[in-house]
Amino acid sequence: MIPRTAKPSVVSGFTIIELLVSITVVGLLTALILPAVQRVRESSRNTDCRNRLHQFGLAMHEHEAAHRAFPTSRNVALRITEFIAGSPAYWKCPSDHRFDDGGSYTSYLVNNGVVLDGYNPTISYYPRGLRDNGFSIDPPWPIPSRDTKASEIIDGLSNTVAVAERLLIPPTDGHVTEAELLADPRRYFWRLPSSYADIDALISDCRGNRLSLYPIVSYTSGAIFGFGYDHTLGPNEFACTGSGSHGDGPIYYYINPASSEHAGHVNVLMGDGSVRSVADSVELTVWRAIGTRNGNETVGEF
């Protein structure tokens, strides 16, 4: 009897080519899925940010009901905590990559209107007296001097922005390097190199010549100091500071736009308590119209 020859065992597995194809497919799937996951996460953070801004507005209205004025003069984030469960640490937008759970600085700043002239430190006023056209009233540098009554919002609460987002500037930023400042240019102020006769000349350099000097730290988001933002430039444009002079002495300009890390927009709180998203591409005339309390403009859609 002739013995049968045993068949060699077959070892299953991937060839090198099959392995490379599998890795390529996994890489492509990851590349397709990851942006979607990031969008979902940002959508969740944006929703949280809007909800916090809405709660901020509710607390401001509670203050107005109790004191017959909105808390626009100073320490806004600190003063409204008595009316709502929260703290200054809560008033920060999770979409900002500088977000953390500590500290009293805030993402939400009061609207100081449109900068029409600079501040004269020698005689302590704005030369043309036109800086009180925002939701805050009569804001001498650096802090508005009094709270705002609802009756002073001539254009109507639903047509006037009360508060908007501003990129956070934590206290630790006083120690950042020039390279770190340049890597996050919309967060900080650009100190412009020239002297300016008017605000339009400064705006022109702020948009086109700001790289002449690197940014500086200015603690706009400190709840203790109560700084505001303005509608002089559109959402997510650069913040700038410069100097100039008039017949009554030297003046200093500060332009501090609303800003965020959302994709193409900032969230704003209207005076009536509603929260809106405003695109970076909004027309500047419309943005300024909703940024002033007494311009009698026809706002339209935005």
Characterise the protein shown here.
The chain is α+β, with helices and mostly antiparallel strands and 302 residues long. It has one domain. It has five helices and eight strands, in the order ααββαβαβββββα. It has helices spanning 16-67, 76-79, 178-183, 199-208, 284-291; strands spanning 108-110, 161-165, 189-196, 215-216, 239-246, 249-255, 265-270, 275-279. The strands form two sheets. The protein has a four-stranded antiparallel sheet with strand order 1-2-7-8, covered by helices on one side. The longest helix is centred in the first third of the chain and has 52 residues, at 16-67. It is globular. The protein starts with 15 loop residues before the first helix and ends in an 11-residue tail after the last helix.
Spans where pLDDT lies below 50 across 5 or more residues: none
Measured as a percent range, the helix fraction is: 25-40%
Number of helices: 5
Helix and strand composition category: alpha+beta
Mean pLDDT: 81
Indicate the overall shape: globular
Number of domains: 1
Note the gap between the termini: 95 Å
Strand order of the largest sheet: 1-2-7-8
Number of strands: 8
| Radius of gyration based on Cα positions | 26 Å
Largest sheet: 4 strands, antiparallel
The protein's oligomeric status is single chain
Q: Strand portion, in percent?
A: 5-15%
The SSE string, one letter per element, is HHEEHEHEEEEEH
